[in-house]
Amino acid sequence: MPKWTSWARVSVPRWADLMAQRANYKPRTKRKATESVRTLISSAQIQRRIAEMAKEIRRDFPNDPLHLVGVLKGSVFFLTDLARQIGGEISIDFIAVSSYGSDTHSSGEVKLTRDLDSSIEGKTVIVVEDILDTGMTLQYLLRVFDQRKPRRLRVAVLLDKPERRLAKVRADYVGFTIPNEFVVGFGLDYAERYRNLADVGVLTLGTQAKKPA
Ligand code: IMP
Ligand code: MG
């Protein structure tokens, strides 16, 4: 056996473990992660607005079968409510993209992770998104969809954060224009949590110093 393997296996004790072994050691403070959600838009407001948006969409396309394309996963709640409010012929499909970055900020680099099940050629397509933020996701999707020759291509978003826009895109139907805050609920998540909240709320992250017991 080469000589170096013998010292490579020596494990260095962690500072925290060493300190914990000292009988009189107590950490001075514990930092506890805190998250809170403040309601911004109530579920009743959301439902009223979705009914209005559905009417606007049907008014613009009174006779067309509409093909709703939801962007997974954030749009799911919005899409299902919208689809039930728009009368007439509707079909639905889903696409998934990932944008790299942290939990609250995307880097702007978008990648297709799940494609549509069926062709959109010749169809009246409504792209359904939870939120229009920098616009990088929508810009990417519109490029992809445009190449597939839909008859019409429109965009419906529940929320619009225009202050953060980087890409030159706009939605045809906007539920609510909101300030530059990170929001969760009604499909929108923070690290995959909070999607199931009926309201949309502003998420505050922080750490709170907590005295040990
Ligand atoms: P964009 O490409 O920056 O326009 O945003 C794309 C995606 O980022 C959205 O579809 C959301 O999934 C996510 N996102 C942007 N802003 C928020 C937010 O405030 N809360 C939760 N997700 C967000
Ligand atoms: Mg999304």
Overview of this protein structure:
- It is a single chain.
- With 213 residues, this protein is α/β, with parallel strands linked by helices.
- It has a domain of 137 residues: Rossmann fold, CATH 3.40.50.
- The protein has five helices and nine strands, in the order ααβαβαβββαββββ.
- The strands form two sheets. Strands 4-3-2-5-6-7 form a six-stranded mixed sheet, with helices on both faces.
- β3 and β4 form a beta hairpin.
- The longest helix has 18 residues.
- The termini are far apart.
- The N terminus is likely disordered.
- Inosinic acid (IMP) binds next to β5, α5 and β8.
Oligomer: single chain
Alpha-carbon distance between the two ends: 50 Å
CATH C-level class of the domain at 43-179 is Alpha Beta
CATH fold description of the domain at 43-179: Rossmann fold
Quick one: biggest sheet? 6 strands, mixed
Strand content: 35-45%
Can you tell me the CATH architecture of the domain at 43-179? 3-Layer(aba) Sandwich
Please state the average pLDDT score: 87
| Bound ligands, named by name, code or SMILES | inosinic acid, magnesium ion
Structural class by helix and strand composition: alpha/beta
Going across the major beta sheet, what is the strand order?
4-3-2-5-6-7
Spans of at least 5 consecutive residues whose pLDDT stays below 50 are 1-12
Radius of gyration from CA coordinates: 24 Å
The outline comes out as globular
| Tally of strands | 9
The helix content is 10-25%
User: How large is the count of helical segments?
Assistant: 5
H/E element string?
HHEHEHEEEHEEEE
